[in-house]
Amino acid sequence: MRPKLFPLATAVALFAGAAIAQAAIYAIDPAHTYATFEIGHFGTSTNRGRFDKKEGNIEFDRAGKSGKVSITFETASINTGFPAFTTHLKSADLFNTEKFPTMTFVSDKFVFSGDKLAEVMGSLTLLGKTAPLTLKATNFNCYNNPMLKREVCGGDFEGTLDRTSYDMNYGIDWGFPKNVRVLVQVEAVKQ
Question: DSSP state, 119?
Answer without folding.
Answer: E
